[in-house]
C-alpha cells in the first residue's frame, strides 16, 4: 500500500470525555413519522417557517416539489450528530463547554438512511467518527472556504464546512446521492427523547460502569430519557471492548427500540404525543433546505410507513485498521462496494457478521420456530466485490461480508456491559 500524501488541512484537538457519539435516527424517524399528522393550516405554516430559518442547501436536493403522496424514487437522508455545547448541556458538562480548545463542533455521529424503491426497504449505515477519508473543498456558513484534504477523520467535516460539507464527504465516499439531511446536537437529543417519554433499553453483561459518561447501571431493562439517554448513547468504556465501534453497536440497539416505539400504538394513537414530538423535532434540528417543509416530511413518512421491521437494517460501514495510525480506521472499499451495490439493486440483505462489538442477544426475546426458506433467485456472489446483480431479474438475497456488523429492527439486543 502506498503512503497517502500528507493531509493538507487535517487538524487534531485533545479528546474529551464528552466528545462522544449520540444516536440520530431519533430525528430521522421522529420527523418522518410524526410530521405527517402535522400538515394543515397555520400549524403547517409555523412548522415550515421554523424549519426554513436554519436550513442549508445540498447539491443533490431533489428538483421536484413535495406532494402529499409517496416519494417515487429511492432516496437517502443523512443524519448528523454534533458535540456542540448548546444551552441544554453547557451547565451539566462544565469544563468541556468552557475550554477554548473545544469551541468547535464535530460531527461525531454520521448515519445515512437509505430507502429503496418498491418494495420499500430501509438501511441505516453508521460511519465511525475516526474513519479516515478525503474531505472536499467546503464553504461554511460564514463564507470561509476550507481547501479540502486527502486524509482526515470524518468527524472534522462539520467543523470545516457545516452540514453540506458532511453530506459532500459521505457522498464522495459512498457514491450515494444525498438529497436530504439534518443535524442535531447533544441538547437536541435530550429534548427529543423526552418528547416521546423515553426509550426502554436492555443492559446486558455485567452492567455498565462508565464514569466518563456518568453512569453506573445494573444489568436489566431500563427506560432512559433526558441526560440518561444521552449518557447511554455516549458510553464507550462501559460496553464491549470499549471502542467507538462498540458504541455504534450500542447505538443501533437504541435505534431499533426507538423505531419500534415510534411505530407502536403508544405513540401513534396519542395525538398529544405526536404533536408534541413534531414541535420538538422541528425546534431541535438544522435541516437541509430540501427537508425544511412539512409537506416533504409527510411525503417521506407516507413512503416509509409500511416498511416491515425485517427490512429495516442497521449496519456499520466496513472498515480495516488504519495502516498509518493504530487509533484510527480506514474504509474497506471492497466490502463497502458489496453493500452499496446490493442497496442499488434493492436486494434483501442478510447480516453474516456480528450484531456489533457493543451488544449481545437479548435473552428475554421470544424465539420463533424455524421455517423452510422460500425459493429465491440466486444471489450475486458477495465475496466478489465486482459482482453486479442482474438488473433484468428480481435480486436475490445478498449475504453481506462478515466484517459488516449490524442488526435488523426485529432483532432484540442488549448492551454488552463490561462493568
Comma- or semicolon-separated keywords:
21 strands; 419 residues; globular; two-stranded antiparallel sheet; 11 helices
DSSP strand content: 15-25%
Give the overall pLDDT as a whole number: 78
Distance between the termini: 39 Å
Main sheet makeup: 7 strands, mixed
* Number of helices in the DSSP assignment: 11
Q: Number of DSSP strands?
A: 21
Structural class: alpha+beta
Side-by-side strand order of the widest sheet:
13-8-1-2-3-14-20
| Oligomerization status of the protein chains | single chain
Principal-axis shape: globular
Helical proportion, percent range: 25-40%
Give start-end ranges of low-pLDDT stretches: 1-43, 369-393
What would you report as the Rg, rounded to the nearest angstrom? 20 Å
Topology:
Layout: H1 25-34, H2 41-53, E1 75-82, H3 87-93, E2 107-115, E3 122-127, E4 132-135, E5 138-139, E6 145-146, E7 149-153, H4 157-174, E8 180-184, H5 186-195, E9 199-203, E10 208-210, E11 215-217, E12 220-224, H6 226-234, H7 244-262, H8 265-268, H9 271-283, E13 286-287, H10 294-304, E14 312-316, E15 319-321, E16 329-331, H11 333-344, E17 349-351, E18 359-361, E19 398-400, E20 406-408, E21 413-415
Parallel strand pairs: 1-8, 3-14, 17-19
Antiparallel strand pairs: 1-2, 2-3, 4-7, 5-6, 8-13, 9-12, 10-11, 14-20, 15-16, 18-21
Short description:
The protein has 419 residues and is of the alpha+beta class. Helix content is 30%, strand content 20%. Helix 5 (186-195) runs antiparallel to helix 9 (271-283).
